[in-house]
User: What shape does this take?
Amino acid sequence: MYKKSLAVFAIAAFSAMAQSPLPLKSKQFFGGTGDQSARSLLVSPADGSVYLGGTEGELVRVAIPPVSATWSVQLRGGSYLGLAALGSLVYGAGTAQPPVCGASDGVGDIEPKGMLSRYAPSSGAVTSRR
Assistant: This one.
């Protein structure tokens, strides 16, 4: 019985890999010169949007299906490592380089600190940052 399960799994995996790649429907570039990259992704069926959080503090909302960005904001000195939606807010968690978001470091070198930002999904307006 155990060997049959493995054989079925291997056939299913081979079939999935043998399919042709999905075509790219659209693409957009956000950011400017330098090293920007997305580190967090939130797909929110509730408001029909995809949110991308970047390493340079970018937060971008794109409608589903993607046509263009609905809004885009940037927190200089911040980096988003995770995004979530709860109720009427979008939450961004990551790091902030002091003095961004009130972060402080009074001893030794300056290291990034933990950060939590809250945004209004409809406009990108900041409701709070810590």
In short: The chain is about 15% helix and 40% strand. The chain has a mean pLDDT of 78. The two ends are 55 Å apart (CA to CA). Helices lie at 2-18.
